[in-house]
Write a structure and sequence with these properties.
Zincin-like; 3 strands; 3-stranded mixed beta sheet; single chain; mainly alpha; hydrolase; about 50% helix; Zincin_1; Zn-dependent protease
């Protein structure tokens, strides 16, 4: 019997799922995301872990860094681009534990971070999700 190896989804695999999710967003949302970078990394860096007071690098699935849409127009010189980070290893752990499809999980986290780009707080998004559910 031939031995086959199964590898976990790579950074590129997660990126492909995220890009597919972006393409399914309404056109107005996609227009506002044109200048937002999407980065897939295995884990958040030490600065994010410290700033967010995380117990472990597995405690965050995604992060939006930047100025939300309502703050645009008066950007300081030298401002960094807006970035949505998705963290592969925490996403994979959540995928294994939740039983959700990886595509659904990546889409959910991406949409959550897009909400931050539009100035919504975690509480705003929880209320929207509760009302929709």
């Amino acid at each position: 019997m031939a031995r086959t190896e199964t590898l976990p989804p790579s950074l590129a695999d997660i990126d492909a799922l995220a890009q597919s999710a972006v393409e399914r967003l309404p056109p107005l949302f996609r227009e506002h995301l044109a200048s937002v970078l999407l980065r897939i990394e295995d884990f958040p860096d030490a600065d994010v872990i410290a700033e967010m007071e995380l117990e472990t690098e597995f405690d965050i699935l995604g992060l939006y860094q930047g100025r939300h849409v309502g703050m645009k127009g008066d950007e300081p010189s030298g401002a960094l681009p807006d970035i949505i980070f998705l963290y592969r290893r925490p996403l994979l752990e959540e995928w294994c534990e939740s039983g959700e499809s990886l595509e659904h999980l990546v889409t959910h986290v991406l949409v959550h971070e897009v909400g931050h780009h539009f100035g919504l707080s975690d509480e705003d998004m929880e209320r929207i999700e509760a009302a929709a559910g």
